[in-house]
Amino acid sequence: MKTLNFGLCLILVGLLTIMAAAEAKSNYGEALDKTFMFLEAQRSGGYYDAGDHVKFGLPLAFNVTMLAWGTIEYRKEITDLNQMGHALWAIRWGTDYFIKAHTESNVLWVGDGNSDHYCWERAEDMTTPRTAFKLDQDHPGSDLAGETAAALAASSMAFKPYTLPTLIIS
């Protein structure tokens, strides 16, 4: 099982590295822009985990949490509002997926990673059944539910100082 989504890891590394290498000659802003472009290609309701159509909840929740914390930590250093807009949009994409998976109090729906690994076709042509499992008091998954809650909490902190009109993504 894969443990981290490559695109989300790239964006986090990009955010963390930009500020650490402010004096370097490398163009980290350009690297971050390309990271956002790659990440946007992984979108389909939530973020895909790899080249197939898997969306693992725990790695996704962890990566959204880390992306949110990176955005919070380096808020002052990310002076390009377009890049901040892309970072927040990437966070929002993940949180929207979690909100859709949380259909009622104490319920979180998750996919079946094993069957999803067998689908290696374009998402537009996908006919593989999308089995889902319900996490609740009778079907435990506190690790995933806890990390999802952490992702949502960190994301709310990342969005707190901004209003929608402030962030324009071109």
TrEMBL record:
PANTHER family: ENDO-1,4-BETA-GLUCANASE (PTHR22298). Belongs to the glycosyl hydrolase 9 (cellulase E) family. One of its GO terms (molecular function) is cellulase activity. It catalyses: Endohydrolysis of (1->4)-beta-D-glucosidic linkages in cellulose, lichenin and cereal beta-D-glucans. It comes from the Eukaryota. SUPFAM superfamilies: Six-hairpin glycosidases. This is cellulase. The lineage of its organism: Eukaryota, Viridiplantae, Streptophyta, Embryophyta, Tracheophyta. Its EC number is 3.2.1.4. Residues 1-24 form the signal peptide. Keywords: Carbohydrate metabolism, Cellulose degradation, Glycosidase, Hydrolase, Polysaccharide degradation, Signal.
